[in-house]
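Running this now, will post back.
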Amino acid sequence: MSARDWIDKDFYRELGVSSDAGDAEIKKAYRKLARELHPDANPGNTDAEAKFKSVSEAYGVLGDPDKRKQYDEARSMFGSSGFRPGGFGGGGGGFDFDFAGQSGQGGFGGGGFSDLLGNLFGRTRAGATTAGNRPRRGADVETEVRIDFVEAVKGATVPLRLSSPSTCDTCHGSGARPGSSPKVCVTCGGVGLVSRSQGAFAFSEPCRDCRGTGRTIDDPCPDCGGEGVSTKTRTLTVRIPAGVEDDQRIRLAGQGEPGRQGAAAGDLYVRVHVTPHPVFGRNGNDLTLKVPVTYPELALGTTLTVPTLDAPVSLRVTPGTTPGRVLRVRGKGVVKRDGQTGDLLVTLAVTVPPTLDDAAKSALEAYAAATNAHDPRPELTAMVQKARES
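Update: finished.
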């Protein structure tokens, strides 16, 4: 893609956000669109696939603070109209700027403007090697997976299907049909830039014949169209470590987009979503469990059998235990790879029967009469008495 094409793109519009959107808003918009447009969710839909690529390209720039800053600076220089034939700006004739670093109209002499373009498009001053000829690390890729609560606690191995750019198997990344190879662009001599003069001004701009890469392909690969990269669906087996938490990201080194010109591939980040358990909860490394008990069990004491994620355990409730008490079962929580082990925290919750038969009602009335002298609310009683006397 040439500088002209790159700057003319409105990446903010692609993601549906304003130009002053924060990093979190940009990430949220990208993740929403990526889920909706992902090829796995739209099999055979070429329009969705094209939009998915556009959204990924936009996030590749706006999701990187340095690239976003350079992108914003370039668009502010060129105005909303972007590149114009014969120069830049929205005026009829436009302004002509010095791409190669020579002094020129607009105050960008001394290399400021060309240095900005160098940052944006990976090019140095005129006469230097272009980014298309230099190795470039592949972009990082992010995907999502959902696992259940037990898998998150104990760890799991899950298959993951990805539709993402990958090195073309036919041309092995060269972009040329097997048996042929790319050639040095005769127009720019492999530099990726061409220069021209107009009056007192000198111009250097991306070569249109090689699109700034410094190479031309006479016989493109039939499978990738000369890009060296094609979108493929692949299946990975991902090991989810024990103790992973909801919304946590797992990094798989070298499983992202392939690098260019022999450079290393990017990384794959797997964001894990955990389905809540109907009985257990989690607080860090500890598991939580609420166990219903009766009042007699608390007052008289009892032994409860409570579940864990392994085998049930017995839990002793001493006489006179108060409702809401939390009992700890050590070593029955989350066991992480670093050896840290959590506990199972059991909260005792008193249940009240919705109805009583005559025998139960008589027994409770007798209990109430026998304990009539016990005031369960001494502090509140004292406050009420003090209020009456004042």
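The two ends are 85 Å apart (CA to CA). More later if anyone needs it.
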